[in-house]
Amino acid sequence: MTTAEPRLEVAGLARRYPGLEVLRGLDLAVAAAEVVAVRGQSGTGKSTLLHCLGLLDRPDGGTIRLDGAELGALPESLRAQARARRIGFVFQAFHLLPEFDLGENVLMSARTAGIPLDQARERRSALLAEVGLSGRERADVRTLSGGERQRVALCRALLPRPALLLADEPTGNLDPATAAVVLGLILDLARRDGSSVVLVTHDPAVAARADRRMELRDGRLWPLE
Ligand SMILES: Nc1ncnc2c1ncn2[C@@H]1O[C@H](COP(=O)(O)OP(=O)(O)O)[C@@H](O)[C@H]1O
Ligand SMILES: [Mg+2]
């Protein structure tokens, strides 16, 4: 174990909607290269939590520190920059853009993160090789299988080497065998890059492969086991 500061440190996070307190002073610390699985019943606020951590939603209270810097209070322009450069997302529904080919879909994240094109292409080639999609840059993403789509989405998320990877039910649309392969890639690549991972899943087999498991209940995270 290291005594270094956690890479992600969330304290007192609150998010409420009219008549509904979703997150109620939630705390969470995640080390570099650590994978934390979050389980919880439908509607408990798992997606709300990821949206807040990913700076897609503004919490009503609390702090979100990434490598020591508080991100929750940044003005919108800097939030967008921090999101693009330091945070990667993988969603259940893949969210690839059908009007762009596979290679362009992966490069999207490089553009918003301000990574020079030659560097981005090099990193893209390396990532596509690791997920078994070498040479498929010109493929039409509409023709890909679910597992292939999620591997493309993973390359897009990891291209900027994000400090934090957020995954919301990333294997929810995949058959069990494909899910296991995609999950293995998410864990291996993120750990190797030192990205911290917060992985929301309903699947106990997925959660079992994380370093730590938490349950979101009553607006807070509780250790499982
Ligand atoms: N924009 C919103 N306005 C009002 N209520 C919302 C909004 N987004 C989510 N909620 C509510 O917040 C709760 C948590 O939602 P969500 O984070 O999507 O849960 P989970 O991902 O755990 O299923 C749910 O009761 C949901 O209906
Ligand atoms: Mg959800």
Question: How would you describe what is shown here?
Answer:
The protein is an alpha/beta fold and 225 residues long. It has a single domain (31-56, 75-218), classed as 3-Layer(aba) Sandwich (Rossmann fold). Helices cover 36% and strands 26% of the residues. It is built from 7 helices and 10 strands. The protein has helices at 46-53, 76-86, 102-113, 117-130, 146-158, 176-193, 204-208, and strands spanning 8-17, 20-30, 35-39, 61-66, 69-70, 87-91, 164-168, 196-200, 212-217, 220-223. Strands 6-7-8-3-9-10 form a 6-stranded mixed sheet, sandwiched between helices. It has a 4-stranded antiparallel sheet with strand order 2-1-4-5, with helices on one face. A hairpin with a 2-residue loop joins strand 4 and strand 5 (69-70). Helix 3 crosses helix 4 (117-130), helix 3 runs parallel beside helix 5 and helix 5 packs parallel to helix 6. The longest helix has 18 residues, at 176-193. The radius of gyration is 17 Å and the shape is globular. The mean pLDDT is 95. The structure holds adenosine-5'-diphosphate and magnesium ion. Magnesium ion binds at residues 46-47. Magnesium ion binds next to helix 1.
